[in-house]
Amino acid sequence: MVAEESGPGAQNSPYQLRRKSLPKRTVCPTKTNMEGASTSTTENFGHRPKRPRVSAKCQDLPAAPAEQYLQEKLPDEVVLKIFSYLLEQDLCRAACVCKRFSELANDPILWKRLYMEVFEYTRPMMHPEAGKFYQINPEEYEQPNPWKESFQQLYKGAHVKPGFAEHFYSNPARYKGRDNMFYYDTIEDALGGGQEPHFDGLIFVHSGIYTDEWIYIESPITMIGAAPGKVAEKVIIENTRDSTFVFMEGSEDDYTVHMHWTSILFLSLRMFNPDDKSAQHHNAHHCLEITVNCSPIIDHCIIRSTCTVGSAVCVSGQGACPTIKHCNISDCENVGLYITDHAQGIYEDNEISNNALAGIWVKNHGNPIIRRNHIHHGRDVGVFTFDHGMGYFESCNIHRNRIAGFEVKAYANPTVVRCEIHHGQTGGIYVHEKGRGQFIENKIYANNFAGVWITSNSDPTIRGNAIFNGNQGGVYIFGDGRGLIEGNDIYGNALAGIQIRTNSCPIVRHNKIHDGQHGGIYVHEKGQGVIEENEVYSNTLAGVWVTTGSTPVLRRNRIHSGKQVGVYFYDNGHGVLEDNDIYNHMYSGVQIRTGSNPKIRRNKIWGGQNGGILVYNSGATWTSLGFIEDNEIFDNAMAGVWIKTDSNPTLRRNKIHDGSSTTALADCSWHRVSTACPSTAAYQRLPLLSPLPDNKIMNNQDAIEKAVSRGQCLYKISSYTSYPMHDFYRCHTCNTTDRNAICVNCIKKCHQGHDVEFIRHDRFFCDCGAGTLSNPCTLAGEPTHDTDTLYDSAPPIESNTLQHN
Questions:
Q1: pLDDT, tens only, 420-438
Q2: How many helices (H) and strands (E) does the chain have?
Q3: Which candidate, 130, 7, 126, places its Cα nearest to that of 69?
Q4: Is residue 106 helix, strand or coil?
Q5: For the whole model, what pTM was predicted?
Q6: Using an 8 Å Cβ cutoff, are 35 and 67 in contact?
Q7: Which of 59, 599, 722, 728 is deepest in the core (most CB within 10 A)?
Q8: In this structure, what DSSP letter does residue 281 have?
Q9: HEC string of 632-648?
Q10: Segment among 72-86, 225-239, 387-401 with least mean pLDDT
């Protein structure tokens, strides 16, 4: 460092300018030539020994004029300009000259320029300990010069920068003092230089495209992308011949692009199809391959693969246990992340999207921990576990994949906790071919097909999930499916909340199934299962259907507040209905029809607007049976039990009380016969087909007489299939026919002054109140609809299943 000045100090030696920066200094006569040097607290190179204490006999000597001018009077701007031409070691030595130089040589702007020249980062990268890297905002850092501190921490790293190695080593004078830095043109060269004495395993890969390098990592290293701005867009490693990165045994505790707290990306890894298009490529090529006993950390990378014969990331083998986080694994032509052969690892906060096959495959006892990943818009399934694959999936967002969001097959047994699985183009979760798994506290919603499919001897646990707003059913169990469906909140689905069919036999308990646009639980085509302690309420159609040879056991459920029937057995629906509370339905609590033969016992059935239990038959060749035992049936609007049209149930020890009709067992001996007026539904008395021992019938009221005395239309207490016994009329003014009947109150109110005719005292429903006449009824209000009509015209729609192997 030389300062050229005119004046008295111009003839001094340049070395005099490095002397102690005091106007007067005390010099011991015996040690006049010793130069003192201050010690830097942050730098460990370029230090001079401390100056010894000066004895009392020392005398004051004046400082040389040039030295005094340089140390005291030269403007800061000029000194800083001079310092800007120094490299880091010379700058540290200058800081040892005097207090003023120490302050100026530690100027953050000087060190930022040096730092960006070497490392290219626009923010300091801190490396306080092995394996720990993070960037900081300089303005928020507690130390005054984070650039210098980061420089010291990263100083011994090797640098890969295409074309720079020759420049660096051909200009030794320019880069004097950087003996601990190594520059290479390729990553392969840098990995081969790991035996250098000062190399500490830290490799900086600078801006550029690195193509077709054989990167096999067999020893502990740290590899970091180094570039300004968005690093991963400027540091690209790609391969067209083989896997881009391969971690071999021995590379435990590697750190590839490890950066802890920021969102800056550091490497972009790419894999292309092999160049030889004509050859049959049997070996898989992966963008990133991690093999046995390797535990690297992959952080903030962009990983792409257009190769169709290998995944973007493959983790395989016993002891393969990487940490992959904050990476983007997208737009690949095969699987995104593939974990197999007993591999494990931690995979957190990754973006996995738009891959041709599954976003994640877990196979053959692979057992990863996968947290907070965003898995979406896949061209196949989101996550696929099969062939004994396992894993712990937590707080992932899985959505808008073309097939299921999560598929489990062939003895796979993952644990999926607190994930969101939604807006799938088919279904949410698909468990098949003896798949298992635990799905706990997830949100499963807005999928095009069923929220959960279970089939082909699969036996998962579905517990504590919210399954809602599906475009078809909530949970669909078919084809010998099993499983435990427990403690879920299932609501707002377009079809049944739970559908059980074709010999499936799940355990369904402690669920809330409500506010469905269709029904609650639908068991059909020889479906089975134990359905217990659920709350089924406020569904648009029946709370529970049982049909076509099905035999479920329903016990201790609360089935209430439905907009139609509570429990509906039809078309040979069987099973056991016991110890349930069935109440407050718009129609009857239980209906049995067309050959059904359930066992109904120890239930409480109350609050039905159209009776407690209705047993009837709408087909010529069917006979509705059933055992109705030990039930308490009370406070229903019509009869406690309706039995009609060739039906023959057995009733024992029931308690039927406090109903709105004086006939608690209505029509149990009436059977429909042909008449000249079919709509009046004339009946003929026949003997009872089965005895009624030990039933207690008490405190029932006559709802018909109440309605007549209150001036109500009798249709309000009837429907198309339940006919009150009273006087009925016709109105010639309104051109009624033999197929029409009008109640007494409508004759008085709606047809006042008309030409009316009394027909007879018989069973009928009022056509005026039903809205079938030309003039609207002023008493009945909005007409209601018949149970049979709704079920026959809108049969349940089965969920579709798109099977993918």
A1: 999 999 999 999 999 999 9
A2: 12, 69
A3: 7
A4: coil
A5: 0.77
A6: no
A7: 728
A8: -
A9: EEECCCCCCEEECCCCC
A10: 225-239
